[in-house]
Design brief:
44% of the residues lie in helices and 17% in strands. The protein is globular, with a radius of gyration of 21 Å. The strands form 2 sheets. Strands 1, 2, 3, 4, 5, 6, 7, 8, 9, 10 and 13 form an 11-stranded mixed beta sheet that branches. Strands 11-12 form a two-stranded antiparallel ribbon. With 455 residues, it is of the alpha/beta class. The chain has a domain of 167 residues: Anaerobic Ribonucleotide-triphosphate Reductase Large Chain (Alpha-Beta Barrel), CATH 3.20.70.20.
């Protein structure tokens, strides 16, 4: 087991008090592959029993670790095998029944979210996959902690445009069914390219088919710590000094996350999975990735140079973190969710951060277009175009990209959506009014790029 530098840990603990360092999430991944049965009721019973067996003490032990080390653990979560696989074994595809079972057990255990109401359809779908996708709006409307995702593209398979169009319609319907709560159903759904098996972050977490029976994955955070480290440098510090400072800070953050993850996994008697190095912001003042850009010298997120700043930040975080752990995984990098980052919210409200600039930034960041509120009357074909563009960035660059947009019913540019907590709030952002309909309505798959032939 790794030997930890106690002085380094103590220094990091000081960051907690001043700069919002925390463990953003501990996520228990649980395989449900042995829960399959032709009888939907037996499936639900097996799901409940297995999750309770593995996760019943997750909150208790996480709280103990939090108190022992004085390190805040903001969210406790569960991720399960993509439910499309599990439900497909049943004679009847009652996926909403499974959704309610997952939500009920999440409430019983006391976790913040449960993920894995998912399907992987980048190359095509089975009847079970399609049935799950079509059930997503109802499932999200009738649950409180369930999160859902669909992988519609990959660098190996290309982009399943049939799935892209279907998912765009699902997003609209999910927002409509939850319009009284600002379309929160859409806020708990994400469309992926190159989704990963061990992601601890919602809404896209699931326990991949190649994962073990159970594992504990950790997502760290600390944008405020990185910003403070940069602000401690001379204003004219060159980029080499800047990058090295970020790497050193990421090392400390990662060491703390691995300590917490390993200790919690030991208490739970499950394997330690991965540590995700992502800098995940919150709406709290001082805990913003956009604030890091300002510390680097940009007037605000969205200024020319923002993509370059994000590229350096992402790279330095990974280089620093990888030296602190042999088990880095998940998404790892820097998130730019609009509603969850106080600086992003401010920049979007002022109009200096545009939709197109956010799309450009996703070429170098972790994931993609995240928690962006758009006018409620945005056509599903336009949303499909947004998803297709983002999937293309991921496919060509061999990286994970995603889209989590909220078409806020009855709202337009100038209005906002408010969720509170980690989901925050967001101004409605303008989208391109030109039609994408004839393009996205073409059936089939956009072929994978040449570099997919690399085996």
């Amino acid at each position: 087991m790794k030997t930890f530098d106690k002085e380094l840990i103590l220094e990091t603990i000081n960051m907690i008090k001043l700069h919002n360092l925390d463990i953003r999430t501990v996520t228990m991944a649980i395989s449900l592959r042995d829960c399959m049965d032709r009888d939907i009721n037996k499936v639900c019973d097996r799901i409940r029993e297995k999750i309770m067996r593995h996760a019943k003490d997750l909150i208790k032990y996480a709280n103990e670790i939090e108190n022992d080390y004085s390190i805040p653990i903001v969210n406790k979560r569960i991720a399960v095998t993509p439910v499309s696989i599990i439900g497909e074994s049943c004679d009847s595809y009652d996926y909403v029944k499974i959704a309610k079972t997952l939500d009920d057990v999440a409430n019983t255990i006391g976790v913040d979210f449960i993920g894995g109401y998912s399907a992987l359809v980048e190359k095509g779908w089975t009847r079970g996959d399609l049935a799950l996708i079509e059930s997503i709006p109802e499932a999200l409307a009738q649950t409180s902690k369930l999160c859902s995702s669909v992988n519609v593209a990959s660098s190996k398979a290309g982009i399943n445009m049939d799935a892209v169009l279907k998912v765009s319609e699902i997003i609209k319907e999910a927002a409509l069914l939850t319009k009284d709560s600002d379309g929160i159903g859409a806020a708990k759904f994400v469309a992926f390219c190159n989704s990963v098996n061990d992601n601890p972050f919602m809404a896209g977490a699931f326990c991949g088919y190649t994962e073990p029976e159970c594992a504990l994955n950790v997502g760290v955070s600390g944008p405020g710590v990185v910003r403070a480290a940069i602000e401690s440098l001379p204003k004219d510090a060159n980029f080499s000094v800047l990058a090295n400072t970020i790497k050193q800070t990421a090392y400390k953050i990662t060491s703390t996350g691995e300590l917490v993850g390993r200790q919690l996994a030991k208490k739970l008697n499950v394997p330690f999975g991965v540590i995700d190095l992502s800098l995940a912001p919150t709406p709290a003042p001082g805990d913003s990735v956009a604030g890091i850009f300002q510390a680097m010298g940009l007037e605000h997120a969205g200024a020319h140079g923002t993509t370059a700043a994000l590229a350096m930040l992402n790279d330095a975080v990974k280089k620093g973190g990888i030296m602190a752990s042999s088990y880095v995984g998940g998404l790892s990098g820097a998130f730019i969710p609009v509603s969850e980052d106080a600086g992003m919210i401010e920049a979007a409200t002022k109009g200096v951060l545009t939709f197109d600039k956010l799309e450009a930034m996703t070429s170098v960041c972790s994931v993609g277009l995240d928690m962006i509120a758009i006018p409620g009357d945005t056509p599903s074909t336009t949303i499909a175009g947004i998803i297709a563009d983002e999937m293309a960035i991921g496919m060509i660059n061999k990286k994970t990209t995603a889209v989590r947009v909220i078409p806020a019913v009855g709202k337009t540019v100038g209005d906002s959506v408010v969720y509170g907590g980690l989901l925050g709030e967001a101004p409605i952002m303008k989208v391109n009014s030109l039609s994408s309909a004839d393009f996205v309505n073409r059936a089939g798959r956009i072929p994978a790029p040449l570099h997919s032939l690399n085996n």
